[in-house]
Amino acid sequence: TEVTERLEEVVKIWTKQIRQVLVESEQIRREADDVGPSAELEHWKTRMSSFNSLLDEIKSSRVKKIISILQAARSKTLKQWKELDGSITLAANEAKDNVRYLYTLDEFFGPLANASPVTMMEHIPSLMNTICMIYCTSSYYNTSEHLTSLFLKITNQMINTCKMYLCEG
């Protein structure tokens, strides 16, 4: 029982740390007012990397051994652990899915940033069709919160491009 108690303390510490990561990942992002759509992709890539690393750690043999021992001892700490494991898996899947869909927009980010306003406008219909496809097919990115953030960044990029065009002319 002494070993079980020690292992339960370890799992409690992990649980607290993982909860902190989950809470931080759900906090509102603080971004510059003029940040472009590439920042959205970078955000989800970073989040995907973080949660995949966390999943790799949770699936390591060391963690599995500790969880197995606690399962054999019928520890009550495992209920929270399983819930967190599910939350991490869900967050990792969301990030992976969002990165996959946002990569389909990546081809538009260059023209939005580097083209003249007239040339930039030629890309808008295709960009909107791609966003519509994402909205209709994505399991996670089809919320008004995500799309508002994306449209805001696209608009920021278009404004910055137009400002640069006006200042150069």
UniProtKB/TrEMBL annotation:
Question: Which residues does UniProt assign to the signal peptide?
Answer: none
Give the domain of life.
Eukaryota
GO biological process assignments:
microtubule-based movement
Q: Coiled coil: which residue ranges?
A: none
Q: Which residues form the Dynein heavy chain tail domain?
A: 5-167
MF GO annotations: dynein intermediate chain binding; dynein light intermediate chain binding
InterPro entries from the entry? DHC, Dynein_heavy_tail
- The protein here is known as DYH5 protein
What is the organism of origin for this protein? Onychorhynchus coronatus
